[in-house]
Batch of 2 targets.
Target 1
Amino acid sequence: MEEYRMPVPWLERLLNTTFFNLCRNHAAAARSECNMFCLDCNCDAFCFYCRSSKHKDHQVIQIRRSSYHDVVRVSEIQKVLDISGVQTYVINSARVLFLNERPHPKLGGKAPSVSHLCQICGRSLLDTFRFCSLGCKVVGKKRNNGEANAKKKEVVIERERERERRGDEEEEEEEEEEVISRQELGEDIYPNTPPPTARRRKGIPQRAPLSS
């Protein structure tokens, strides 16, 4: 079974990268938090100063924070990735989306009824989207790919069974045609078993005459 392939090679690395740690090379600087990700290098997060020195002419996106969770601006990510179906939010006058699934809020009493839920984690959505984050969309794509492969496998197995059934039917038809042909030619399709060879019955042995 084929595994789901990421649409771009850097997506899985992006979703698994830890951001906002202090840069080892520029820890004393004011903008030393690692909130940059290079799409060309597909490496770990880096800071503003590392971008200027090592990733100057590369495709770089900046990760931001909202309620202690990583987000990316839609204007940056939609240029390099299909984000259809993912819920977006407006934060600080910029439209963003979350990279990964977030913990569900704990609500006391009966949970409110919502009409739109994330297909993976069940988080309530504001609009008719399918996923609450980019990570949930990847999980959904993998799941759909697995189901599609399973259906393909079932189709292949059913075709093999159908070919076997047709082969058996054709073999039976050939046997029937052979019997009919032999009957038309006057051949005995069930030849008689030859009679067993008669055995001669032994005579009564005679004694030789006694000598005088």
Target 2
Amino acid sequence: MLQVVSLEKVHASFSRKYYIIAYFLLINVRWGEANMVEAERRLLANALLDFSNQRFVLLSESCIPLYNFSTIYNYLMGTTKSFVEVYDLPSPVGRGRYNSRMRPQIQISQWRKGSQWFEVDRDLALEVVADRRYFPIFRRHCLGRCYTDEHYLPTFVTIKFPKRISNRTLTWVDWSRGGPHPSKFVRQDVTIGFLERLRHGSKCEYNGKNRNVCHLFARKFLPNALDRLLRFAPKVMQFD
């Protein structure tokens, strides 16, 4: 059983206040299977019912924000791009997961991989929820060692909307230690220097300009890291 939670903050310009909107769904899922993506699609569908929601961010319980809300809000609302990581990986864990039964709708040249942690605008969220052509193919043929949450959205946007994404994720993850899961961070890992590297240690393009603010969130932080995160947040992240 997985409880899927989406946290969104929506700006109401007429009152100059911020509101937090939370969406909860309780769905039976298995790691890496199509029902994880189905849960994400249902989460988006629920969030889309509120017409004031314009940006949709998928986060997990182990994600932390790297900036205060005003910075995150302005970053997301200041661009017309969505943030979905997409890449072509010619290896057993990339193209090797492609199932030829997906042809002709999905060709191996269109097969992509990427982070499951995405940020999309309202138009793209609507397209994901409305998709009846590609997601059923993944449900039927992306099985076993093919993990739908790593391939569906990157492949879908590559085929349909390649110019509408920034081709990167806003959630920092450490894969340097290898293995099927990213690194986990505990209390002693959380230092001011570490948080500053997460905030400004990368280079990327934002609205056609080079920036060093590339990630707005980071994971995987365990619960015992919370006290140090709360202690450093006002100074490092300028939380309101």
